[in-house]
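Dissemination and training. As part of the outreach component of the grant, students in the summer workshop were shown how a complex can be specified as a set of sequence lines and then modelled as a single object. The example used during the hands-on session is reproduced here so that future cohorts can follow it. Participants entered these lines:
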Amino acid sequence: VLNVFVFFGGGGGCYNAVIRLSFQCLPQQEIMKWNGWGYSDSKFLFNKKGQAEFTGKRYRLSGMILPSLQDWFENTFGASVKQHKSPATPSLNAGALPPANLNEAFLQDLTATGIPFSHEADDRVFRAHGHCLHEIFALREGRGFQRVPDMVTWPNCHNDVVKIVELACKHNVCVIPYGGGTSVTGALECPPEEMRCIVSLDTSQMNRILWIDEKNLVARIEAGIIGQDLERLLNEGGYCTGHEPDSMEFSSLGGWVATRASGMKKNVYGNIEDLVVHIKVVTPRGVMEKSCQGPRMSTGPDVHHFILGSEGTLGVVTEVTMKIRPIPEYRKYGSVVFPNFEAGVACLREVAKQRCAPASIRLMDNEQFQFGHALKPQVSSIFTSFVEGLKKFYITKFKGFDPHQLCVATLLFEGDRERVLQHEKQVYDIAAKFGGLAAGEDNGQRGYILTFVIAYLRDLGLDYYVVAESFETSVPWDRVLDLCRNVKERIIRECKERGVQFQPLTSCRVTQTYDAGACVYFYFAFNYRGLADPVHTYEQVEHAARDEILANGGSLSHHHGVGKLRKEWMKESISDVGLGMLRSVKEYVDPDNIFGNRNLL
Amino acid sequence: MASTTLYSQRDPMLKKRDDFEDILEERRNSSDLKYAVRCYAPVLYKGLTPCKANMLKSMVLQSDHLRYVINQVSQESGEAPDIIHEEASVILEEMAHRLKISTVRFFAFTLTKAFKTLFQHICVNEEEYGSWYINLQQAIQEHPVVLLPSHRSYMDFLLMSYILYTYDLALPVIAAGMDFMGMKFIGEMLRMSGAFFIRRSFGGDKLYWAVFSEYVKTMLRNGFAPIEFFLEGTRSRTCKSLTPKIGLLNIVMEPFFKGEVFDVHLVPISISYERILEESLYARELLGVPKPKESTSGLLKARRILSENYGSIHVYFGQPVSIRSLAQDKVNRCKYNLVPRHIPRKPTKETQSFVTDTAYRIVRLQEDSMVLKPWVLMASILLQNLEGLELSLLTEQTLWLRGLAQSCGAFLDWPDHTPSAKVVSSSLALHRGLVCVSGGRVSLVLGEPQGLVTPEEALFNRAVSVLSCASYRNQILHVFIRPAILAVAIHNAASSKKDEVFNCFSFLCKMFSDEFILCPGDTVQDFEEACYLLVKSGSVQTLQQNIVVTDRGQSTLSFLNGLLESFLQGYQVVCQYFCEEACDSLTEKQYIPAVRSFAVKLILAGNLRCYEVLSSDMQKNALAALLRLGAVSKVKVADQVTLKVNKLAVNSLEDTLGGRLPTQKAVLARL
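and obtained this result:
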């Protein structure tokens, strides 16, 4: 399928080979934004009438008008859709890009292997970043980055990776693995101080399901596969992995392993570390894999756990054996309204205690509830609007819920029909004990649809002087409320102290429940009009928020990882000795720091 | 409601401070009854969980913390948890307040009547930039607030609630000593005005501590009301600030350390009395005349004091201090992550030292805003001239001292546009119980010589005057303490070399750290501050590595030396007692009467002229210093605690204090 052509450029007798891939094999890059989230055809905008709409055809929300978004947006941020715009630069200033620092000998050997590569500016910049605010902001300003990969290579299989890593070791070239590019920890950023040639190893061509073992319900999958493709391909055979991180449209299996990803439905299927049965990884020392696929072993510390969360510092994950499940027969959304966040958290805690969490259960705070409302599409009939009004009346007037206090939990049940219905009843009964009212399937489903489009909203904000970001943590149950309150308060204070002129939006939701605690996700956004360096201000506030999280018993990260963004807290988080353990593994596996993205340690 | 009569310090010589507002002014011109029943609707904490005083109790009894401790105590004692729980509930019943607005209104009415007779003015600071009550109101709305007033009089907490009521601010709940509860009716009245009662000592009682700390923390977390307590622990009988007790401060900080609240704000409040109601009572108490037990009838007898003039009261509300900002980079809150928060734990060293530092800082803030009257200056001078001095000389020296005090940052309330002779004479008039003027000479009164008195009685009478007078001098000690210690250090040091003077300074700081507010660990800073102040006033010069007294500095240094003279002497007498008299079986209880009679003997024999050593406060502080420095140690024999003396060490401390022995590191190291 690869359509490779080679051309030679005359350059003073210098050998200069570029193997260019045709566009067919790079579908992602071509259909995705170069300076924002997701597909190029899908975005929020305010149309000429001033109404918000979501373009494209890919999502349930696509092509819809969102009548209340503008009001919400302007009122929440003090932004003005008409007056204060901050549009992105249409294209990257190629002059801003540092010239490719190529290692000729490596290039020569790589060419000999026939593995495609490129040092086109577009390709390099596309793989020089993840989706941190500072990265996207720099791109929108057309600034680019201080250091980007010098070349990109596309191995097609495990053996290609082995060859590339061998050559990299031989020629002392720095390799940065690249999967879906959805990192939000600065993990893909090239260290500015890296003097060697940096090769971005793009795993996107390693995207096959190698085999499916229905007896053991596992599948062998190449690590470059993207989440939605994996699910689609497995679905064809009646299976699924059930691993659905919010980024699953774009993130890759290898990336999940490298960051210890977590999926929305982990209550049924488990997190990535529970799903993985076998990992094959190419390191500078050679290939590491276990000799069997036993479901659990007592063979010393699990070597998989050196790789899970290694963030590309030890090698490239090439193949993974992963558990699969038959597609559930029945699926049902649901939602519950609580009078306040405290009641909601208490209910989730009880659900976790009784170990009856549905596939997914998420609790949004009031800010997010209101935000969700702002994203309601135009109602198609008078009847629907009448019913909506009736519901609202029932909840706020009849039940006495304060619209500025109430919050919503969204639910997703999966399994056979009877069990789902039984399960549903159990959960709603618990909810009722905490004052929760069932609020219908629609609200639940909308919550999950929003999950995928919410990432697009940051780009809309950025068009109107609003910066936004999310971050997450995990925390013991008894500290959830204190942590949420203190972190929000800290953000508000820090913004004020740092001269942010408008009240910031802080919002959180409990996205996962565990026996001993929960995962909490924060959204944070503010209007940066009047600030000289909004990104810096933003980073200071986020830093303070992370300090606050740690001081309140939260973890450094639940599933985003550490990257470079949170390295400074690693020692405090895992102790000197713990850090030393990780370092010594790194020193043994990769003494020359070939995998030199400098994440984590 | 704000009165329009502001009285201010316009003299440009005076340190520019805030104006004060006399809250009695309006009371004198309008109905007290109306005032007592007026609409009272203070701003409350935004995170308030509304609950009644009774609900508070059940929250405390059902808390994880208390349940944990109950189980622990039950396991240790073998008693059933139910019984321990019952005990806890009894403790709580005895402790808890029953804040009722009607009682507050009753006090608003009666106190107004009393205040108007007792005091000329009750002045509350009125700032130019953002008034204190707006700041306080905001703080109360945003965070749990802890009010930390200085403690000189029984009046203090009624006065505080009275002022907060006047300004329509949330009424506090107040940690009060159990002794009040002895007064049946009044005790209950106080309870209903927000006081909760704690035993004076409950060191080892786990259950008591748990009930008490959970009670305070529950009120703090829920934002029930501002919490008020006295960092000094008890009323200062000497009118100088007592070294802070950190137990309660620890408790109110814990919810912040554990993330249960975002922040807690501390409000230092300085209450200065021109004349303290308990003035002569305190002196007698310090001299060992037992204090009358608090009883309602005793209080009624105290009505006599209603006929006296007690001048004015100044109350200064400081800026609320955020614990969060103080603790930044000092306390690692992650330390609290690894143990469930309801399990009581000893604070870490880091936390301990932070809390101690904060306590000292707050006490210093209280001290800095204490309003000083001219009489305080005069008392300081009179105490250095016990034989009396010419009125004109007193006036002259008072003016000189006024300059020195101001250059050291004293918060002086010197009347405007009044001839200094008038200022001096009106101060003398107000304190005519303490001083007399005859034939142009001013001297302390020596007590009433009624009939035949024994030499001891005469001595005690004189001591009462001296200690009463000292309680006024003590009010200005915080202004001069660092320069004064430096002055003594310069005097005692073997040479003028800076490091030698510093050695001496640091020795004195160690010695006197129970006597004065000298934060442990701040010695270098204190030394620099002292040098700065003395250099600024032109009293010393620092040349190369030497500290040299200037010609015009002689009088300043001699005054400063004189200020500490009685303390130096007093401590030496205590040392002398330990070396010469103390027997091996001396118990802690016998110590104070024994030192007192030792000192009395010395004075009667004409070998000692220092009366202040008769003060039990100084004796206790000196003992604490000797214990801290290891020269004396406590030994538990049967159920008695006896004091074991290391005579060599005590002796060398005595000599070092007297400047007869150079401060050597070796000496200190040996201790």
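Residues 573-657 of chain B form one domain. Students were then asked to discuss how this feature might be tested experimentally.
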